[in-house]
Design brief:
By secondary structure, this protein is of the alpha/beta class. The chain contains 6 helices and 15 strands. Strands 1-15-13-5-7-11-12-4-14 form a 9-stranded mixed beta sheet, with helices on one face. Helix 5 packs parallel to helix 6. The chain is globular, with a radius of gyration of 19 Å.
């Protein structure tokens, strides 16, 4: 047995023995799944529609299947670089051209739940990121950086979107942190529990939506609407987030799993 095949054998043995477990970081996808609200001047993403083609009936007596309709960025989803204007001209920037190897990486989980409980507009700053690194080590190249905020506990649509008179309010990343992660730490991308990888008020920032602008301009990815981040350690887990292989796809609903 080669060293590589032995590694895979050990992985399966550890899973079967319960020494490793799989944590599902994915929200259910159904008609009640929230979609992002955009100002009316922009085209809106549709909600989820699931219509039966047949279900053991005269349209198909022995089989059940559905027609699905939803936007690429619905529910727990993957953002490809082509999703944002800054990444539109990069090579291998769409769901069908990104090398599959880049969907798998170690997870760095940064817990800011208490901060977000006190302030829904909380932004992860460089000081907080450096504090995390002093405790858990430098974020290694090719990591998924996951921001644990507790936001997925908000099961009510209104609370999840948290829209006020001045727009949505939800946590995110300071622009300097997005720049450091993308360019200096060279991460795969970032993941959040909120509906998008930018803070709710990011449309008012300079530049607007800095995480999308920086991350996708650097060829990095985003994961949104994650859950169960409280089941992951700060380091040591491996995350697999593989979007559908949609030709020229800007993103895709995704089943995100972690090996813990």
């Amino acid at each position: 047995m080669t060293a590589m095949s032995a590694t895979l054998t050990h992985l399966v043995d550890d899973l079967n023995a319960g020494r490793l477990r799989i944590v599902d970081l994915t929200q259910p996808l159904e008609p009640s799944t929230p979609v992002i609200d955009l100002p009316p001047i922009f085209a809106a993403s549709p909600g989820v529609t699931i219509d039966a083609i047949s279900r053991y009936d005269d349209k198909g007596p022995a089989w059940y299947w559905n027609t699905l309709r939803f936007g690429e960025h619905t529910g727990t989803h993957f953002d490809a670089p082509i999703h944002w204007i800054t990444g539109k001209d990069l090579p291998d920037n769409a769901c069908d051209t990104i090398p599959a190897r880049r969907f798998v990486g170690p997870a760095c989980v940064i817990d800011v739940t208490r901060d977000v409980d006190a302030n829904p507009d909380f932004l992860l700053t460089l000081d907080r990121l450096e504090q995390w690194e002093r405790q858990h080590g430098r974020i290694q190249r090719g990591s998924w950086v996951l921001l644990r905020t507790g936001w997925s506990r908000r099961t009510d649509r209104a609370a999840f979107l948290n829209v006020g008179a001045d727009g949505p309010h939800s946590p995110g990343f300071d622009a300097a942190v997005s720049t450091l992660l993308a360019k200096d730490r060279d991460v795969l991308g970032v993941g959040v529990e909120t509906i998008g990888t930018d803070a709710g008020q990011a449309g008012t920032f300079n530049p607007p939506f800095p995480n999308h602008t920086v991350m996708h301009g650097a060829g990095k990815f985003g994961l949104a609407s994650l859950c169960n981040l409280d089941q992951l350690p700060p380091t040591g887990a491996v995350v697999i987030a593989a979007p559908l292989k949609i030709v020229n796809g800007s993103g895709s609903p995704v089943r995100v799993i972690a090996i813990v």
